[in-house]
Design brief:
Largest sheet: 5 strands, antiparallel
Radius of gyration: 24 Å
CATH class of the largest domain: Alpha Beta
Number of strands: 21
Number of helices: 17
CATH architecture of the largest domain: Roll
Strand content: 15-25%
Helix content: 25-40%
CATH topology of the largest domain: Dipeptide-binding Protein, domain 3
Number of domains: 3
CATH superfamily of the largest domain: Dipeptide-binding Protein, Domain 3
């Protein structure tokens, strides 16, 4: 893995809407940074929420918002382990295929309705409903018995999910898969209230008919300005310690940073250049926090949209021409680790000794010549797409542009793109080349090797296909012996590293400024967890 509580916040929104691109100092009030302003956590959204519907969300920015509003049967802990959430417990059948969950007593939707097993059946079924046409439903819920047939409209219901009684639900999957229960942390498995969903004439979830069971509710949403959440006092694990969360939508990184410096945000993301400046600032240097993440930034090479990428020698040439160490030094001042593999640090199965294709410009040029493009002659202009709001991505793409033009002779066109548009283009497989990250949906290698690179996967946006690779990840997905399972994934990783459907660049350590008065942030490799325990004060 997304409301204003005072007249001051409303006036600030007016400033945000009118002052982007201008000096914000003439409008924004310079509040004291020595203490919190009320009991509301202020933390910017880097982009417009792409949706308020858990079954449709695909991006981490929006998931970070929605995870405070909705929840599933299970959840992640700060120790990166799985824990009960709406489910108080579960058992697994001897054949490893049927999971039986007991619903926690007293869990209520924000509307006050008690959560039951029927709500679980409805929610899982909705994620695969062909009428909804979720772009990610089959990816994360496709292991359930009958999922493919139901999602394609061949059968009228989902036979793999059954309510045993009001407090018990069973889910049967097609094959025993060690990773499967982790999938239930993804938003497609959040539990929804059918009555509230149906308040929308199209059966979609918006900010107007939100009815999760998480620790916060949606108080208000003003497009292009902010989302405000308020504490849900009847949350089953106890009411949050803060009154709410204010999420102004600020796509410009410098503006976000200025708002923090002037006391109007309690936390803010940092670009690499800003980190360097803030490390030299006595007033800010002790507020910098680096959060390790199960995420990898990479370059996607789409064989369907850029024909030269169909030749593995061309893809290898780009990999050999990529000086990852230089990127990390120039862009991040050393605050990143080189990614040799798409699987990031922190996930079981990551091999710190694994080596992918090294930087070797001579080898790159020789491969390009062998492929019929000496010194880049005949190569079409290559656009590299990347998302807005992240200066580090822009700087990285510019460094890559210089590398590829100098070493390979190819003309590169950087394409800064609005986030929702970039996601739509990726879904439609129309990005020839793109710089993006894959952040773990759950902490298992299957989420990378099978979902991202396997033939036919909804998330394979590069057109990569290799029968040997597919056979290895298919076998690993169902292997019950953990040692054998990891060994199969490692063999698959070696194939992908040499065939280069993607070029892994670096693993993620997210820098943020966090006020000294912000306490008890629950964090994991997945990112910040719901802000249930956060307190603001001395």
């Amino acid at each position: 893995m997304p409301r204003f509580r005072s007249h001051l916040f409303r006036s600030l929104l007016f400033c945000f809407a009118t002052a982007i691109g201008l000096s914000i100092s003439g409008c924004a009030k310079h509040e004291s940074a020595n203490g919190p302003q009320g009991n509301t956590l202020r933390y910017a959204l880097l982009a417009e929420p792409t949706t308020f519907d858990p079954d449709l969300v695909q991006d981490g920015t929006t998931i970070d918002l929605l995870q405070n509003v909705y929840e599933g049967l299970v959840e992640w802990t700060p120790q990166n382990t799985l824990a009960p959430a709406i489910a108080s417990s579960w058992t697994v059948s001897k054949d490893g295929r049927t999971y039986t969950f007991k619903i926690r007593p007293g869990v209520k939707f924000h509307s006050g309705k008690t959560v039951t097993a029927d709500d679980v059946v409805y929610s899982f079924t909705r994620s695969l409903d062909p009428k909804l046409a979720s772009p990610v439903g089959i990816t994360y819920m496709g292991d359930i018995v009958g999922a493919a047939a139901f999602e394609s409209g061949k059968i009228p219901s989902l036979p793999g999910v059954k309510a045993i009684d009001a407090d018990t639900v069973s889910v049967t999957i097609t094959k025993p898969k060690a990773y499967w229960i982790n999938v239930l942390t993804y938003p497609t498995a959040y539990i929804l209230n059918k009555d509230s969903v149906n308040k929308d004439p199209d059966g979609k979830i918006t900010d107007q008919n939100e009815d999760g069971s998480g620790p916060f509710t949606v108080e208000s949403y003003v497009r292009g300005q902010a989302v405000d959440l308020k504490a849900y006092p009847s949350y089953w694990a106890g009411a949050p310690k803060i009154d709410g969360i204010h999420r102004p939508i600020i796509t410009d990184a410098n503006t976000r940073h200025n708002l923090y410096v002037t006391g109007q945000l309690d936390m803010v993301d940092l670009s690499a250049g800003t980190v360097s400046d803030d490390e030299k600032n006595p007033a800010l240097k002790d507020q910098i926090v680096f959060w390790p993440r199960a995420a990898t930034y990479y370059i996607g090479l789409n064989q369907k949209m850029y024909p030269p990428f169909k030749d593995v020698r061309v893809r290898q040439a780009f990999a050999y021409a990529t000086d990852k160490a230089k990127i990390i030094q120039l862009v991040f001042n050393g605050h990143r680790d080189v990614a040799e593999d798409i699987l990031p640090e922190g996930i079981k199965g990551h091999d710190p000794e694994f080596k992918g294709i090294p930087y070797d410009p001579t080898k790159a040029q020789a491969l390009l010549t062998a492929a019929g493009y000496p010194a880049g002659k005949g190569l079409p202009v290559l656009p590299i797409y990347y998302r807005e709001s992240y200066p580090d991505l822009e700087t990285t793409v510019d460094v890559l542009r210089q590398m590829y033009q100098q070493t390979l002779g190819v003309s590169i066109q950087p394409r800064r793109t609005e986030w929702a548009t970039l996601l739509q283009m990726e879904d439609n497989n129309t990005l020839p080349c793109y710089h993006i990250r894959w952040a773990a949906d759950y902490l298992d290698p299957q989420d990378y090797y099978s979902i991202l690179l396997r033939t036919g996967s909804e998330e394979d946006h590069t057109g990569y296909s290799n029968a040997s690779y597919d056979a290895l990840v298919d076998a690993a997905d169902v292997e019950q012996n953990p040692v054998k399972r990891i060994a199969l994934y490692r063999k698959a990783a070696a194939i992908a590293a040499m065939e280069v459907p993607v070029i892994p660049l670096y693993y993620v350590k997210e820098p943020e400024l966090v006020r000294p008065y912000v306490h008890n942030l629950d964090d994991s490799l997945m990112g910040h967890l719901p802000y249930l325990h956060v307190t603001l004060g001395p």
